[in-house]
C-alpha cells in the first residue's frame, strides 16, 4: 500500500484552510490529496493531476468521499490546461510529489519494479508514465548508441559504472535486445555486483525512467511557467523530491529573482520515526516557497 511521506509537514507548508483551492500536481494514489481535501473542506477545491492513468484510478478511489476533489490526466507542466478543465482560474496552494509510487513499482506491466530471481519483472521494459507519449525504455536501449547511453546513465542515474553498463548493453543487443526489467537488472548486477544498500540497478532504472518521461524537462517547465501561471500572489508551493537532480532544480528556482520567497533555507526531511514506518521517506526532501509576484 502506498503511504504518502511528510504529510504533516506538507500540509503545514501549504497552510491550507477551509475554502481554499489546492492543486496536487502529482496526485499518485491520492494520499496527500485526500488530506488536502479534508483540510479545505466542501467549500474548497482540490484538483489532482497525474500523467499515469493507473494512478488516476487509484486517486479517484481515494477521493471518492470528497466530491470537491477532481482528477485530470496531464503533466504538472500542463497545470493551466488542467485548471481550465476543472473550471478554476488560480489556486491558493500546490503540491508536487516527484517520487515514484509504490503502486507503480508493483506494476510489472511497464517494468517499473524488478525482482531478480523470483520470477517477477518479466513484463516489457517500458517505464513510461503515459504510454501514449514518448518511446519505451526497451526501444531506447535498442537504438541509442553507446555514447548516448553512457550520458543518460551518468547524468540521470549518477551510476559510477555507467560506461561499463552501457558497453554491455550494446554488446548484448547485437544478439538479443533487452526487453524486460528483469533482463536489465540481471545485466547490471553482473557488471556492477550488489554491495550494501539498494540494488545496483536502482539508479539505472531511475536514469531510464527520467529519460523516457523527460522528467527533468517537465520539472523545469513547471517551475518556470506552470506554477507561476496557476498560483495566486501569496500562494504556496510545496515540492517533494527524492534525488539530487530534482532537488537542485527546485532550490535554484525558489529564489526571489524568480518571484518566489522560500519558507526556509534548508529542506525539511523525514523524522527517524517516519523513516522506520515508511522507508520511502528516507530520501525525501521538502522545499516550499510563497509566490510573491503575479
Automatic annotation (TrEMBL):
Reactions mediated catalytically: cytidine(1402) in 16S rRNA + S-adenosyl-L-methionine = N(4)-methylcytidine(1402) in 16S rRNA + S-adenosyl-L-homocysteine + H(+)
**Location of this chain's protein in the cell:** Cytoplasm
* Enzyme class per UniProt: transferase
Q: What does this protein's UniProt record list under function?
A: Specifically methylates the N4 position of cytidine in position 1402 (C1402) of 16S rRNA.
* Alphabetized NCBIfam families for the sequence: 16S rRNA (cytosine(1402)-N(4))-methyltransferase RsmH
Q: Which family does it belong to?
A: Belongs to the methyltransferase superfamily. RsmH family.
What is the protein named? Ribosomal RNA small subunit methyltransferase H
**Annotated source species:** Alienimonas chondri
Gene encoding the protein:
rsmH
Amino acid at each position: 500500500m502506498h503511504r504518502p511521506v511528510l504529510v504533516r509537514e506538507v500540509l503545514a507548508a501549504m497552510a491550507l484552510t477551509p475554502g481554499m483551492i489546492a492543486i496536487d500536481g502529482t496526485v499518485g494514489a491520492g494520499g496527500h490529496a485526500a488530506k488536502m481535501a479534508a483540510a479545505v473542506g466542501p467549500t474548497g477545491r482540490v484538483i489532482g493531476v497525474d500523467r499515469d492513468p493507473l494512478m488516476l484510478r487509484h486517486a479517484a478511489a481515494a477521493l471518492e468521499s470528497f466530491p470537491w476533489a477532481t482528477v485530470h490526466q496531464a503533466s504538472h507542466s500542463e497545470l493551466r490546461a488542467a485548471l481550465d478543465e476543472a473550471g478554476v482560474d488560480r489556486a491558493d496552494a500546490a503540491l508536487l510529489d516527484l517520487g515514484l509510487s509504490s503502486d507503480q513499482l508493483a506494476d510489472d506491466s511497464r517494468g517499473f519494479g524488478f525482482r531478480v530471481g523470483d520470477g517477477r519483472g518479466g513484463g516489457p521494459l517500458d517505464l513510461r508514465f503515459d504510454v501514449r507519449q514518448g518511446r519505451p525504455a526497451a526501444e531506447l536501449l535498442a537504438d541509442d548508441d553507446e555514447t548516448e547511453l553512457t550520458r543518460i546513465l551518468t547524468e540521470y542515474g549518477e551510476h559510477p559504472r555507467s560506461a561499463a553498463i552501457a558497453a554491455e548493453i550494446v554488446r548484448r543487443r547485437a544478439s538479443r535486445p533487452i526487453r524486460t526489467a528483469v533482463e536489465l537488472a540481471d545485466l547490471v548486477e553482473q557488471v556492477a555486483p550488489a554491495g550494501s544498500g539498494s540494488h545496483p540497478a536502482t539508479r539505472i532504472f531511475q536514469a531510464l525512467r527520467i529519460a523516457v518521461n523527460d522528467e527533468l524537462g517537465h520539472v523545469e517547465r513547471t517551475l518556470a511557467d506552470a506554477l507561476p501561471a496557476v498560483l495566486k500572489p501569496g500562494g504556496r508551493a510545496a515540492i517533494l523530491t527524492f534525488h539530487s537532480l530534482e532537488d537542485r532544480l527546485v532550490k535554484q528556482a525558489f529564489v526571489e529573482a524568480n518571484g518566489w520567497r522560500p519558507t526556509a533555507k534548508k529542506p525539511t526531511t523525514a523524522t527517524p520515526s517516519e523513516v522506520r514506518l515508511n522507508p520511502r521517506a528516507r530520501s525525501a526532501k521538502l522545499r516550499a516557497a510563497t509566490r510573491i509576484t503575479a
